[in-house]
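Follow-up to my post from last week.
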Amino acid sequence: MLDMTSMEKLRADCNPDAVEQCLFGIERQEPGALEEFYYRTSASVYGFALSVLKNTQDAEDIMHDFYVLVWSAAGKYRSDGKPMAWVLTVTRNLCLQKLREYRKKSDIPQEDWESYISGNGNMSAEDKMILSECLIRLSDEERQIVMLHTVSGFKHREIARLLELPLSTVLSKYNRALKKLRKIYGGEQ
Amino acid sequence: MRIKEAEGSAKIKQAYANAVPDICGVILSECKQEKGKVIVMAEEKKTKGTMKYIMAAAGLILVLGAGALSANVYRLNYAVSSTVSLDVNPSIQIMVNEKEQVLDVKALNEDGETVIGDMDFKGSDIEVTMNALIGSMLRNGYLNELANSILISVDNSDPLKGEELQARLAEKVNELMEADGFFGAVLGQTITEDSDLRQLADQYGITQGKAQLIRQILDSTTGHTFEELAPLTINELNLIISTGTSAVEKVSSLGSASEKAYIGEEKAKEAAFAHAGVSGQDITFYEMDMDLEKGVMVYEIEFKCGGFEYEYDIDAQTGDIIKNKKEIDDDMPAGSQVSSPGGNMPAAGTNPPGSGTQVPDSGTAAVPPAQQNSGGNAGGNSGASAPSAGGNSGSGGTSGTITLEQAKEIALNHAGQSASAVYFDKLELDHDHGMQKYEIEFIVGNTEYEYEIDAVTGAILEYDWGHDDGHGHGHMAGGTGNSTGADSGTVTSEQAKQIALNHAGQSASNVYFDKVELDYDDGMQIYEIEFVSGNMEYEYEIDAVTGMILEYDWDQD
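User reply:
Got it. Predicted complex:
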């Protein structure tokens, strides 16, 4: 089993082979497999949930539910070399379920993002700013596309499949989103 | 100054990574507690002997108190344990937890909404919910004497549990209907989560259960497409299954589907016999299936009499003869055909007076091969270009007509796919300018393949590969090949470079190519092309088959 610092290095490293091995490990209930899986995938799971739900507490709940579910259902994953597609599909389904609950209650509250995002101790002021800009400036779809491409390493084609959008839409939204974000980095278009 | 895109992406990634609240410890202990493995974890942590141990232990205590409880409570109460789908024509999905309490009921079509109405089932027992839904279907007339079949599908990660629940619910529904004096038919099946199935279900707005049933029908019969069967009611599908020759596995059946909406087998038989001018006593072989022909439910009747083989399709509602065919019975000894009393019957394909609905038979009629070829060669099927027709074409005295299975094989071989990996969208034998050809369409991942195959020689007349990305553009360079060469239709690296350059608005003379690589990804061949012009970096991924730009990225240094 890896210690904490080695785990920290794996944070958000979604190498498909490694993630797949983790899932197999979880299925066999090997010690450390779930932990490694968490470190590799949680940025994607949390990031996507946050992108969809725009609420840090809900995103955290989804993440919790997701890993508990994976622990009991890792056997449902069928090896196809695309474990991240599976991870994000399951996450997306959990999010949609959550959204359905919301539709019956009330709208998702608008938040002052920078004060809500607490992170995991490594979070810098710049990180907070980038994240809240993503949440405020981008449309839901733009944000999800940027997140999936940059954090989960999805190809545009894979994003199109997951979000059920035409490839051309994904491409144009991605480029538009990056243009918006470039302004934040201090430069003018 | 602008930040390079790669650097920007890295920053975004880091921001997301650092924003994740650390609940790993909580999750780990919840999961392990559930499986009774807490001790293992504590011991392993001990050997590290640092601050981390204390942190881990602290997490553990927290979990032993509250976490373990919450995990179990979560699974028992909120986790979807089974998904039950009900299909009649209304389609309804019921999500239940491990205690078989309803978490959510969802209508998948408008009829489903009508059935659910304003009833709220949250927290109710699954059997109570089923009772109410069946009652509503009867009241609203979705289940009636004419259409009495209902499909129950259960999706549970544990197949045994799923099967048990499915059998129990099917029994229950049957009881309910009987109690109402209603003779219903219940089809039951368990399904397993499957992304193809989900895609099909979403595409056609039906439950995964109905999608699976249709897929099974397609597997055991030929000549249908998913699209054709999707709008049918379960009763119609049930009729196709129950009268079909090949059994549909994995579907349990109680009761029998209602035929009351139709004329009945006897009438259909009479109509066919009358048309053929034969009487029931002379029949040597008889078979009846109910099937769907061009969107109409039909009785498919086959019989043999006096050295001839007859096939009729009778419209199940009107009794009209939609299709008829008469052939010399191959199974008969040669001599008997001559003496057979064939003269008193109408010749194959001729329409009797007064029946306007007849369609010329499009089956595998035994047309002499010579006649086929004379008309066919005009279409550009030079025999040499048939990649794998091999022994099929011109093999001596046999009819020279290839079977559907052979045509499928030819298309699959050419596409480099295997039957198990593809989903057939369309399998049709068609007439075009006097020649017979198979139209075959199948899907692998998000790529669609279309083939036209000469039914006589097996030559590939036309093919088209494209991406199913909802836009229908995908038939770019090299898409439609007219079998000019052995492996035409693939884009060369030069063409791929040109496509990228055109898109980037650059010309070959002022760029420098960093990378031109043919790569395999997801079963697809893709060119990865990178080039630099001035201080701009361009990256392209181009489908090596269609020439379509799959992905591109421009960066400024």
